[in-house]
Amino acid sequence: MSYPGYPPSGGYPAFPGYPPTGQEFVYPPAGQYSYPPVPGGYPPAGGGSTYPAAPPSAGYAGTAGYPAPGGYPGAPQAGGMPSYAGAPSGPGFGVPPAGPSFGGYPQPPAQSYAGSGPAQMPGYPSGQAPSPMPGLPAAMVQCTQGTIQAAPNFDAGRDAEILRKAMKGFGTDEQAIINVVANRSNDQRQKIKAAFKTMYGKDLIKDLKSELSGNVEELILALFMPSTYYDAWSLRHAMKGVGTQERVLIEILCTRTNQEIREIVNCYKSEFGRDIEQDIRADTSGHFERLLISMCQGNRDENQTVDYRKAQEDAQRLYQAGEGKLGTDESCFNMVLASRSFPQLKATVEAYSRIANRDLLSSIDREFSGNVEHGLKAILQCALNCPAFFAERLYYSMKGAGTDDSTLIRIIVTRSEIDLVQIKQMFSQMYQKTLATMIASDTSGDYRRLLLAIVGQ
To answer: Got the DSSP string for 379-439?
Structure first.
C-alpha cells in the first residue's frame, strides 16, 4: 500500500533511522496499524511446573480475535522457559541469571484473567486431555499492557500548538515536546502531524529535526513513524550498505504476527521499491536465509488449539533430526518452528524434554551455530515467554561498555503500546534491577528523560 505524503516531498536530510530522500507516503488511517491487545497465556499442563505466587499483572484485557501484537496470540505467559545452556553471551541471547524458575529461566508474571471479551482462548487443562484439546472459556483472556495508552480528551490541534510553541523562537522547550510525544499513542501522533501541517503549513518532522539531534532525535522520529513503516524501515536499514544486522532481522521477522508480517512486506515493497525476499537472499545464506524466507511468508498456523498428539510427533521428529542421529536435518527444524503456532510449539518443547531428557533450546545450541541458531532460539523463546525475550534483548543492549542505542530505541518504541509493562516485570525478575534504573545509568539528558517517560518511570 502507498503512504503518500510521508515523509514530505523532497524527503528528510540523511539520518540513520529515517526514510531516504524522495520516498513519500500518507499517514495510515486512524487505527490501521495499531496493535490490538494480545490474548494469551496458559494454565499449566497436568504434571507441569506451577506458577509462582505473584500478584496478577495489571493491564487491560485483551480483545477478541487474531492477530495479537508482538508475537503470536497465545504466547504463553506462564510456565517459564527451559534453560538454554551454552547460549552465546552476545546481545540478546545471553543466559539470564537463575531466579524463581524451572530450568534456570524465569517464570513469566502470574496471569490475570478478565471477565469480558469474546476471544476464545485455548490452553492446557489440569490433567490429561484428549488430542486435539478444546479451548478455554471465552472469558479467559490474558492481560497485556503497554506503558503508553491513547490519551483521553485528545486534541490534535492543541498538541500541535504546544509543539509549535516549544520550537518557536530562540531555544527549544524539550520538556514540552517530551510531555506530548511520550503520552500519546502512535495513532494520535499521526493526527498531530496532520494537524500541525494544516495549522502552520509546515512539516512537524522537519521542524523537530532542525531542533533536535543525536539519540533523542532518532527516538522522537521513531515515535512519529507509523508502526508498520518503522518495522519495514528497520529491516531495510539492517540490510542496506555494507554488512547485515542479522539480529534486527531476527527480532522483527521471528516475533511479529502473520498480519503484521504481510503488512511489513507490502510496505517494504511500496515504500522502498524492493522485494524483501530478494534482499534477504542477497544479504544472507544457507539455513538462516531459508528460515527468514519462511518467516516472510506470514503463514504460521494460527489455530490456537493445542494438539498434544502432534506435539509428541513433532518432538520425536526433532529428536531424530538432531540429537538422535549423526549430523542434523536442518530442514526439519525449519519446518516445525516456522509453521507451528506458538502454543503448539510450547507443547512440543514440553514433549521434547520428556523424550530427550534435554530441553529443545539446549539441543538447538548443540546442533546449530551462528545466526540460524539465534533465529530458531528466538522463535522458541517468544513461544514460551515473549516478554522475557525482549527483556533480554534490552539488557544486552545496555550491558557492558557502550550502549546499542538503535536496539534500545527500537524495542522501547515498538513494545510501548503492547507489552512493555510485562517486559519491565520480566526484566526486574531476570536481572534484579529495574529497566528504568539501567536506562538511567546508561543514557543522559533529554534522551534519558524521554526514554524514562515512555517506560513509565
So the answer is: HHHHHHHHHHHHHHHHHHHHSSSS--HHHHHHHHHHHTTTTHHHHHHHHHHHHSS-HHHHH
Question: Which residues share a beta bridge with 105?
Answer: 102
**Unique residue bearing C-alpha cell 538447538:** 364
**Is the alpha carbon torsion for 176, 439, 108, 386 positive or negative?**
positive
Number of residues that make up the chain: 457
Q: What whole-number distance in Å separates Cα of residue 435 and Cα of residue 457? A: 9
Instruction: Read off the amino acid at residue 445.
Output: G
Q: Are 221 and 260 in contact (CB under 8 A)?
A: no
Q: What is the residue type of 116?
A: S
User: Does the pLDDT value for residue 65 go beyond 60?
Assistant: no
First and final C-alpha spacing in the chain? 37
Could you give the C-alpha distances from 7 to 96, 177, 235, 262, in angstroms and in order?
40, 20, 18, 22
Which of 353, 312, 432, 343 minimizes the C-alpha distance to 103? 353
Alpha-carbon distance of 211 to 147, in angstroms, equals 26
**Which backbone phi and psi does 123 adopt, to 5 degrees?**
-170, -165
CB atoms under 10 Å from CB of 219, counted, come to 27
Which cell numbers hold the place of 8? 514530505
Q: Taken in order 46, 51, 53, 57, is the CA torsion positive or negative?
A: negative
- In the chain, the amino acid numbered 451 is L
Q: Which pLDDT band holds residue 344 (cuts at 50, 70, 90)?
A: very high
Q: Which segments within 9-57 are labelled E, that is strand?
A: none
**Among 3, 59, 12, 72, CA closest to 220:** 12
**Cell output for 285:** 545464506
What is residue 120's three-state secondary structure? coil
Alpha-carbon distance 405 to 101, whole Å?
A: 30
pLDDT-derived band at 170, boundaries 50, 70, 90: confident
Residue type, 334: N
